[in-house]
From TrEMBL:
PANTHER family in the record: HAD SUPERFAMILY HYDROLASE-LIKE, TYPE 3, PHOSPHOSERINE PHOSPHATASE
Biological source species: Hafnia psychrotolerans
Record's protein name: Mannosyl-3-phosphoglycerate phosphatase
Keywords on record: Hydrolase, Magnesium, Metal-binding
Keyword Endoplasmic reticulum included in the entry's annotation: no
Superkingdom of the source species: Bacteria
Sequence ranges assigned to domain Sucrose phosphatase-like in this UniProt record: 159-262
Keyword Transcription attributed: no
InterPro entries attached to this UniProt entry: HAD-like_sf, HAD-SF-IIB-MPGP, HAD-SF_hydro_IIB, HAD_sf, SPP-like_dom
Pfam families reported in the protein's UniProt record: Hydrolase_3, S6PP
Length: 266
């Protein structure tokens, strides 16, 4: 069990985890955020949200001095100054859009991505404000989809995307199309290695997430908190039970519950 004075990194999903699924509040988690900050423990946002969305939220959460992982691991933004570097994993957004438009034209697949609709439609789908919906549409390396077709067509599209080097990942509200090499787990491992090299010591990693797109992140960390989700998807993990905690509460209340369980205070 990690302590607050251990070389600890916390990786956290946002929607349905640190942020409430309905109103996007993180109030129940604020006490732990304060304690982690006091002990200089990095809290690394690891989310399907875009760089533009996370950058705005980081300032509010007072995490803007830290790197973050965006678009389900397809993009890592490193900390540093007014123009921080990006580390892109997999395909870029324009390539993804070109492939999707081509497949829809050829096979009449029934879906809509963020690149097909207005900011108002994205706001209606997500419950975001119009301003935040526009930030959600500023994408670099992944495309969220609403699927309206049948399961046979979906399987066919998934196969065709694989042939193009792309993959579908299930999120809380959407399916996300991104490069096959991308994913939260890969991004978490890469960033944890950067911290280890900088500090010249092994890092202890803890991850918190609620959805299927968080599984690779939860597999990549030492201690995993599976937050009770607003979905009916299985969340299987190949880890020892003592390193996994499944909360009984949703969102930031579950987030707090997970840290209460794992982090010992001397």
């Amino acid at each position: 069990m990690p302590y607050l004075d251990d070389p600890l990194i916390v990786f956290t999903d946002l929607d349905g985890s640190l942020l409430d699924h309905h109103d996007y509040s993180w109030a129940p988690a604020q006490g732990w955020l304060d304690q982690l900050a006091e002990h200089n423990i990095p809290v690394i946002i690891t989310t399907s949200k875009t760089s533009a969305e996370v950058s705005a939220l980081q300032h509010t959460l007072k995490l803007n001095h830290l790197p973050f992982i965006a678009e389900n691991g397809a993009l890592i933004q490193l900390a540093g100054g007014d123009n921080p570097a990006h580390h892109l994993i997999g395909a870029d957004y324009q390539h993804i859009r070109d492939v999707l438009v081509d497949l829809r034209k050829r096979y009449d697949f029934e879906f809509r991505g963020f690149g097909d609709v207005t900011p108002q439609q994205v706001a209606d789908w997500t419950g975001l404000t119009l301003t935040n919906a526009r930030l959600a549409m500023q994408r670099d390396a992944s495309e969220p989809l609403m699927w309206f077709g049948n399961t046979l067509d979906f399987s066919r599209m998934e196969k065709l995307l694989r042939e193009e080097g792309l993959a579908l990942t299930r999120g809380g509200r959407f399916w996300h199309v991104m490069g096959q090499d991308a994913g939260k787990g890969q991004a978490v491992r890469w960033l944890a290695e950067q911290y280890q090299q900088q500090r010249d010591q092994a890092m202890v990693t803890l991850g918190l997430g609620d959805g299927p797109n968080d599984i690779s992140m939860l597999e990549a960390v030492d201690f995993a908190v599976v937050i009770l989700g607003h979905h009916d998807q299985d969340m299987p993990l190949n880890k020892e039970d003592r390193n996994v905690y499944r909360t009984t509460r949703h969102g930031p209340e579950g987030w707090r519950q997970g840290l209460d369980h794992f982090i010992a205070i001397k």
